């Protein structure tokens, strides 16, 4: 590639690089710097406080509870959503009657806005008139206060998230399945391989790049999904369903503590960077079929 071609390549990349820097890298650096300052008060500018915000974060019990909630939320929703997506993709990829309708049914939750989904599930979870409690009453069981009980609030959010995301991930698996080489399955049929052997030795290894892509998106979603908390629980009861991004929002816009919100954001960016390093530095070397 000569210098003219290199210049043309950089000029083509320039708009994307400017947008990426303006809305991702520069704000991230500014947020990290702001975490070392206190809040500006009145006409006084913010002053440098060093690691005081991080010391306060270390002693903040709510932060550790929120971080545990988010970790547990990701540990449950990510693998369950991926497994369900794979099962649904294998199902709708088979030759079954009305598979177009089944695909539409699986994909419909994905196109719904998160606020609309939260309102739908709010009706499901309502203690007195909710769908779930009415079903339980029909079978002689007592209803639950799904969103008001600390033991049920976070699992209730997990169920809603899995319901919404599994259909979205299914589309990627379905596209990957339809792109696989049929000659491999024909060879397996000649060898009289079982369905489990075909899935384990052919389908699953070939789907690993797609699985890595889905895993990355699922983990990011587990830390950035916050819309449903506004409608359903607002982090309650007693922070039982509070997640890291919503806690950042509370400190920034409810408590007007932008310095501590910047500190929390810096911690979340570090967590996501570590997850990205694991995914791209370790898992990416193991996912490609050889």
Question: If you had to describe this structure to a student in words, what would you say it looks like?
Answer:
The protein is mostly helical and 290 residues long. It has a domain at 53-112 and 164-285: MetI-like (MetI-like fold, Orthogonal Bundle), CATH 1.10.3720. Helices cover 74% and strands 0% of the residues. The protein has twelve helices and no strands. It has helices at residues 3-34, 52-59, 61-93, 99-111, 114-125, 131-138, 150-178, 182-190, 195-224, 227-232, 244-254, 258-282. Helix 7 (150-178) crosses helix 9 and helix 9 (195-224) packs antiparallel against helix 12. The radius of gyration is 24 Å and the shape is flat. The two termini are 31 Å apart. The mean pLDDT is 88.
Q: Supply the CATH class of one domain.
A: Mainly Alpha
Reported by name, the CATH topology of one domain is MetI-like fold
CATH architecture of one domain: Orthogonal Bundle
Name the CATH homologous superfamily of one domain. Answer: MetI-like
User: Oligomeric form of this entry?
Assistant: single chain
The rounded distance between the terminal residues' Cα atoms is 31 Å
- Which ranges are low-confidence, i.e. pLDDT below 50, for 5 or more consecutive residues? none
Rg (C-alpha, Å):
24 Å
Order of helices and strands: HHHHHHHHHHHH
Secondary-structure content class: mainly alpha
Relative strand content? under 5%
Range of helix content: over 70%
Mean pLDDT: 88
Q: Find the count of extended strands (DSSP E, 2+ residues).
A: 0
Instruction: Characterize the main sheet.
Output: none
- The dominant shape is flat
């Amino acid at each position: 590639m000569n210098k003219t071609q290199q210049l043309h390549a950089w000029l083509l990349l320039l708009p994307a690089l400017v947008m990426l820097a303006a809305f991702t890298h520069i704000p991230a650096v500014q947020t990290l710097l702001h975490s070392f300052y206190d809040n500006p008060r009145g006409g006084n500018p913010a002053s440098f406080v060093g690691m005081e915000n991080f010391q306060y974060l270390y002693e903040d019990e709510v932060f550790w509870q929120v971080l545990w909630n988010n970790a547990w939320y990701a540990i449950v929703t990510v693998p369950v959503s991926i497994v369900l997506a794979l099962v649904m993709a294998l199902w709708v990829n088979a030759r079954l009657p009305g598979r177009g309708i089944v695909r539409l049914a699986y994909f419909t939750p994905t196109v719904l806005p998160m606020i609309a989904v939260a309102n739908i599930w709010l009706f499901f979870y309502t203690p007195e008139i909710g769908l779930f409690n009415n079903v339980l009453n029909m079978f002689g069981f007592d209803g639950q206060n799904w969103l008001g009980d600390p033991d049920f609030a976070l699992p209730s959010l997990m169920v809603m998230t899995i319901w919404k995301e599994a259909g979205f991930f299914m589309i990627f698996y379905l596209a990957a399945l339809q792109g696989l080489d049929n000659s491999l399955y024909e060879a397996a049929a000649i060898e009289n391989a079982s369905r489990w052997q075909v899935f384990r030795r052919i389908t699953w290894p070939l789907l690993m790049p797609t699985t890595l892509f889905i895993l990355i998106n699922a983990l990011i979603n587990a830390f950035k999904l916050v819309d449903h908390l506004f409608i359903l629980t607002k982090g309650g009861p007693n922070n039982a369903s509070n997640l890291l991004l919503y806690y950042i929002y509370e400190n920034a816009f409810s408590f007007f503590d932008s310095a501590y919100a910047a500190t929390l954001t810096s911690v979340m960016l570090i967590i996501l960077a570590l997850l990205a390093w694991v995914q791209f530095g370790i898992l990416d070397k193991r996912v490609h079929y050889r």
